[in-house]
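Supplementary Note 2. Why include the ligand at all?

Several targets in our set were suspected to adopt different conformations when bound, so apo predictions alone were not considered sufficient. For every target with a known small-molecule partner we therefore ran a joint prediction. The input for zinc ion is given below.
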Amino acid sequence: MNAALREAAQVQEDAYLKTLATLIGFETPSNEAAAGNVLVDYLELRLAQDGWQVERLRQSEVGDQLIARLAASGERSSLLLAHYDTVWPLGTLAQMPFKRDGERVYGPGVLDMKAGISSALHAKILIDKLKLELAGPVTLLLSSDEEIGSHHSRKLIETLAREHERVLVLEPGRDDGALKLGRKAVGDFFLEFLGRSAHAGNNPKEGASALRELAQFLLYVEDLNDDDAQTSVNLTVAEGGSATNVIAEQASANVDVRIMTNPEAERIERAIRGYQPRDSRVQVKVSGGINRPPLELTTANQALFAEAKTLASNLGFELEGAVVGGGSDGNFTSALGIATLDGLGSVGEGPHARHEHIRLSETLDRLALLTALLTRSG
Ligand SMILES: [Zn+2]
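The joint prediction is reproduced in token form.
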């Protein structure tokens, strides 16, 4: 049993709430670089004061990325992934202020994922307070664009992940607190069909119907579904034609795909990009694609989860794992083959929703678990 660590995390409550209130006080929507950088200014100072070595990577289109490191001699190095951007626009705080109601703590981005950042900060505070020994070097990445696809941070995430033995993602757990062991890949393809118009009464045969091609494509793409593999492919939006008496020159379609494994992602990508029009006079242009690879339950991820489960049981609570639909930056690192565990930041409900909140004591238990993962306190 490691009741002392669990208790010490619970005793952090006031300090943790103070940190959280401060972080939520900075509004940081992904597309407001200047606002994001005000929080980065604060975190840069705060992390240095708390004993981290801080490196700030300036960005132009999004907020700066912040890397904070703890040196240690042990071999079990960990990369902590956190993002400070939220989905909430500037001004949300006025309608959705930071608020505690019993066990629940509310505020824009509290769950996704200012509490995750707070947990990283307080893990270090706990380590110092209890004089725990790190299991290996720790690197914390605070990125600025996770909510809009991580286009400015993906390379950095992948580079850092390769330098570490494992990746701990500080996203929230599932509503019931389960860690996220699997996440589906998500893709959005856009297809444009360009045919040839003609009068529908006088010379229809001279036309090459973009709509007819779209209909062929619809049947083709829906045949890609595979229930056993949990692959879903759906044509979700379609549009085309110009007038009731004209053979359609133009049509377009959106395809939403959700995929569980990398081979399935490759199969779908190949099939959609390789679509050959039935009518060779119709041109087909494909854009978009799969945004994030799936987070698969690899052997490495499974072993890391088993370790977390044991540590949790030593702390005195049960830990579950689940497969969820949405993606995170952990999808990138797991796809590289690096042990990745997601959902370690906090416990609560309603990410991206008005009722977004964390449950405090469960979140502090998770802080104890994170601390145990980073140290030799198991
Ligand atoms: Zn998030």
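The chain has a mean pLDDT of 95. The chain has eleven helices and 16 strands. Comparable summaries for the other entries are listed in the accompanying table.
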